[in-house]
Input
Amino acid sequence: MKHIVIFSENNGWHEQRLADAFGRNSSQTQVVSLRDCGIGYEQSRTGLNIPGFVDVLPDAVFVRAVAAGSFEEVTFRLDILHALKHCDVIVYNDAVSIERTVDKAMTSFLLMQHGVPAPPVWVCENDEAAHSVIHAQLKKGRSIVQKPLFGNCGRGLQLIDSEDYELDAELINGVYYLQQFIDQDDHNGRDWRVFVINHQAIAAMERISEHWITNRARGGECLPAVLTPALRELAEAASKATGIRYGGVDIIRDAQGNYLVLEVNSVPAWRGLQSVCPADIAELLAKDLLYNLSSDSRPRTARV
Output
């Protein structure tokens, strides 16, 4: 019997689906918040304090959520994931993958370095530099989307399509992430979410909205979609570029028919996708994690 920790802030739909899937594969799960974990040798022979595990570590952990917080709080929660991997515990996705994808600037850099098509971006702290970029793009007839560096679910997005705009440095914590708005010509509220496991695209959905923001959390509608070769190839390339073991890749098509990667999510929700996809996504995730665990022959140095 394998013991799997699901790091999450609640025990909702996703956690229950995972628990059922792991249970069908002879594994036991426990939902734990990273907020409740700690480091300290006096309390634990392993050096890590994971609720429910005394002097022993789980066989693997599945990261469903890393709670927002102060810079110090989030850093420490990622420290726990780093430490678990250092102790040869399978971390799915690991801290490095999460750091690369929760930070849109690093995601964009990695996509660019690996030649993965994506909208042009500009990231800076300087107000003058940000305004200069925006003015130059508006002059060329191009709009800009300002995004929080660590934002998700479509929150905090601002479309800049005229000179009558204001930038709020506090809202974005002093870092300007500016992405070229992709004019789709026929429908500016349309994109695709492709789900990838072990660098293989396994399912896709189309998201449409009356607004240019298509996230399900912002009112977007999820529709079945054919996983075309173009979507598959681009999503798999994005997953390899960022190093995620599983994730959601958001893809848009421009007016010329070119596909571009908008974002990569290493802790994606999949309830919307599951509603239009026949495959059991939680089952596929559980089997991939357990395959990863069974093929990993390294000793778990912190186990007793």
Notes: The CA atoms of residues 143 and 161 lie 5 Å apart. Residues 121-180 form a domain with the Dna Ligase; domain 1 fold (CATH 3.30.1490).
